[in-house]
Specification:
Layout (H helix, E strand, L loop, with lengths): L2 H10 L5 E8 L2 E6 L6 H8 L11 H8 L19 H10 L3 H6 L1
Antiparallel strand pairs: 1-2
């Protein structure tokens, strides 16, 4: 066994944060690590404690976040459907395709 493989296995075989593995994929050892935070809302809240500056949030958005924000989860997003154009904007954002690309297809 190669020295690097031995070190990898020693480090990850009994690691408390190892969720699955180790196994070999594409010629490399792989291990899945457990997530530090399992709640999407808590993860977002932590990331936005400093108005998103630590995660590279643009300053204009950061200034808006400092004024306050609400995290909507799952069906709570439906409350936005009363706002004209909100449903289309949410769909556009989630689809990940720019509007100009949609227009040409």
């Amino acid at each position: 066994m190669a020295e690097g493989s031995g070190r990898f296995l020693n480090r990850h075989l009994e690691a408390p944060d190892a969720a699955a593995g180790p196994w070999i994929s594409g010629g490399r050892w792989v291990v899945e690590e457990a997530r530090g935070e399992r709640s999407a809302v808590k993860l977002i809240e932590k990331s936005l404690l400093d108005a998103g500056l630590s995660i590279g949030m643009p300053s204009k958005i950061s200034e808006s976040l400092k004024k306050g924000f609400k995290i909507l989860l799952n069906r709570e997003v439906v409350t936005l459907t009363g706002i004209p154009g909100a449903a289309e904007e949410i769909y556009r954002f989630i689809s990940g395709r720019p509007a100009w690309l949609e227009a040409s297809s």
